[in-house]
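In this section we walk through a basic example: taking a raw amino acid sequence and producing a predicted 3D structure, encoded as discrete structure tokens. The instruction is simple. Fold the sequence below.
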Amino acid sequence: MNQKFVFRIKTFKGGVIDNVLIEGRNIDEARYRLQQRYPGCTIMSARPK
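The resulting token sequence is shown next.
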């Protein structure tokens, strides 16, 4: 069963995006999916929803 995780990221160009919701079986899978969607981003925080 997938969980939902909420991320705060800094994009490759320097913009900050709050409340990015990603589903995954665990936090590592959610981070991987986030990196696929936003290549080169920096994860500032992550938490389960």
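Looking at the output, two observations stand out. Helices lie at 27-37. The mean pLDDT is 95. In the next section we compare this with other chains.
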